[in-house]
Structure formats: structure tokens, C-alpha cells
Amino acid sequence: MIVQIALPLVLAFIMFSLGLGLRKADFVNILKFPVAFGTGLFNQVLLLPLVALGLAHTFGLSPEFAVGLMILALCPGGVTSNVLSKIAGANTPLSISLTAVTSLLSIVTVPLLVAFSVGHFMGDSGPKVDATKLGFTMFLITAVPVAMGMALTAKSPLLVERIAPGISRTAILLFAFIIIAALAKNWGVFSSNLATLGPFTALLIILMLCAGIASSKVTGLGRRDATTISIESGVQNGTLAIAVGSIIAGTEGQTLPPETVPAAVYSITMYIVCVPFVFWRRRANTRP
Known about the structure:
Elements: H1 2-20, H2 24-32, H3 34-58, H4 63-74, H5 79-87, H6 92-122, H7 131-155, H8 157-185, H9 187-218, H10 223-234, H11 238-249, H12 261-286
């Protein structure tokens, strides 16, 4: 199955590429940016899920789509947020530090909160979520590849410097191929909900980008830190969200379960919304 088997493997490869860009110093950087790190962590771990929960109720999403949106909101930023921060001229070490820590936290937070979300929106009709099993699965496809990437970087930094760009590009291309293949096989479900979920996911991204700017102003942070926090708040790991949605749905006959559709739509709207934002912030960050 494309989503059930191939996507977790591609996700593991993407997380390995993330590990190649991590150093022990990235975790130490938390001490260098305590206020910025705390602000970004609050936005991503607490504020984003609350905003998604509020939007799901306000707009009356179906239970499956509401669960899918919550899964997306619970996921960390991933490699994409690091790349966008770099392009925007933001505080890239802060972005990497936030991604590293939230990726590790997600092994615990995502299974527990996904189980809550399924019970909250779907009740007894929802799939049974084994939080322990889901946490172990996430550990295997996220933490282990990241650790392998970090270990390779520590052992052979010159080799990693040569191969890391190619590995990152390959990971992005593989993800794009998997998503396109999955959408092609389940185009009816995707296209019939694109008009609803497209503006909806775009609104979620816009709200969190604005929340990142606003919270940074409240905490007195500079432009580069504010840009990083905004991107980390608004950009989530859609690959992980689709993989988790597929795992909890456990459907053998569907290539793209309903719980994964919000993340699939988000994977498109995220670029539409974030690319103009990134270049706007790039101009702001390069001003004296």
C-alpha cells in the first residue's frame, strides 16, 4: 500500500535527512535563545492545537476531518520549516532547535493527544488508538532515523557535507511522488473536499503566522526571531501527519483515509501561503 507502507519509509528517510543537519550544539542553543525558544514552543505545542480545535468546532468539520486537522496541528515543523527559515533570513539555529525538540516531544504528545482527539470527535465510532503502539511506531520512524543522521554527521562530517544536499532533495522528491500517487488513486475524496479544506487549512496557517509575529512582539523579540517563530508556528510536518492518520485509520482498502485528507490539502496550501510570507519577511530581515 502506498500510504500504509511507502509513506512511513519515506518519512523515515526525511527524518534521517533532518538528523544530518543536527548537531549537539543545536540542543544547547536552547540556552542561547530562552525567550524565543519558549515562545516558539508554546505556540507550537499549546496554541496551535487549541486554534485547530476551535476552528474544527467553529466550522463544523466532519469527525474524520477534525481528527485529521488535530493530527496535523500536533505534529512538529520538520525539515520544511528549517529551509523556509533559512530562505527568509531568519534565526535558522533557533528553527533547528525548535524542530529537534518538538520532534522528540511528539513521540509522547502526538499519541496521547491523537487518542483524545479521536475520542472527542468520533466517540465510540472512531478507531481504537493504542497510544503506546503509536508512540513506539513514531519512535521508529522519527527518532531512530534522526539519531542515525546525527551519528553519521558526528562521525563523518565531511562526507555528510557532500551528501546532505542530495539526500534532502531526494527526500522531498520522494515525498512529492508518494503524495501525488496517493492523490491520484483517491482523487474523488481529495477533490470533493479541496474547496472546503483548502481555505480552511490556509486560514489555520495565516492565523498561526500572525500569532507568531504577535507573540514575538509581546515578548520583545527581534525581526529574525519573530520570523522563525512565525514559520515554526505555521508550518507543520505534513508527511508525519499523513503517516499518523493512515496508521490510526488502519484501512486496507483506501489509499488515502479521510483522516489524512486535511494534511494532504495542507501540503499544497502551505506553500501557497508561506512562500509570499517568507519573501516578505526576507525583505524585512535584510533591512538595516
